């Protein structure tokens, strides 16, 4: 019973935090045109303190593909690398040695840090 009350209180706190935090998230550049073999990056900026960032890829006509969840530092998967600076409120997604299969829409989502 004690555990259930603790879980319910935690869920209530999370909901209150989500309601209280207004956030703006901006990705740049809005459109990125790459040449095969070149490196590039996308940036995700937010207006509030962040606890972590997720990056996703969606191929034309395809499903959303999870790439990274990063709360600090650097994560790498193949030619993709994500960095985050929670203090500076941004994350970068680097694409190294671009390939035709990289043609997609990339999304970031931000997990806000509760005040």
Automatic annotation (TrEMBL):
<dbReference type="GO" id="GO:0042101">
    <property type="term" value="C:T cell receptor complex"/>
</dbReference>
<keyword id="KW-0325">Glycoprotein</keyword>
<keyword id="KW-1003">Cell membrane</keyword>
<dbReference type="InterPro" id="IPR051896">
    <property type="entry name" value="TCR_alpha_variable"/>
</dbReference>
<keyword id="KW-0472">Membrane</keyword>
<keyword id="KW-0732">Signal</keyword>
<dbReference type="InterPro" id="IPR036179">
    <property type="entry name" value="Ig-like_dom_sf"/>
</dbReference>
<feature type="signal peptide">
    <location>
        <begin position="1"/>
        <end position="23"/>
    </location>
</feature>
<protein>
    <recommendedName>
        <fullName>Ig-like domain-containing protein</fullName>
    </recommendedName>
</protein>
<feature type="domain" description="Ig-like">
    <location>
        <begin position="23"/>
        <end position="115"/>
    </location>
</feature>
<dbReference type="InterPro" id="IPR007110">
    <property type="entry name" value="Ig-like_dom"/>
</dbReference>
<comment type="subunit">
    <text>Alpha-beta TR is a heterodimer composed of an alpha and beta chain; disulfide-linked. The alpha-beta TR is associated with the transmembrane signaling CD3 coreceptor proteins to form the TR-CD3 (TcR or TCR). The assembly of alpha-beta TR heterodimers with CD3 occurs in the endoplasmic reticulum where a single alpha-beta TR heterodimer associates with one CD3D-CD3E heterodimer, one CD3G-CD3E heterodimer and one CD247 homodimer forming a stable octameric structure. CD3D-CD3E and CD3G-CD3E heterodimers preferentially associate with TR alpha and TR beta chains, respectively.</text>
</comment>
<keyword id="KW-1279">T cell receptor</keyword>
<keyword id="KW-1015">Disulfide bond</keyword>
<dbReference type="InterPro" id="IPR013106">
    <property type="entry name" value="Ig_V-set"/>
</dbReference>
<dbReference type="InterPro" id="IPR013783">
    <property type="entry name" value="Ig-like_fold"/>
</dbReference>
<keyword id="KW-0391">Immunity</keyword>
<keyword id="KW-1064">Adaptive immunity</keyword>
<dbReference type="Pfam" id="PF07686">
    <property type="entry name" value="V-set"/>
</dbReference>
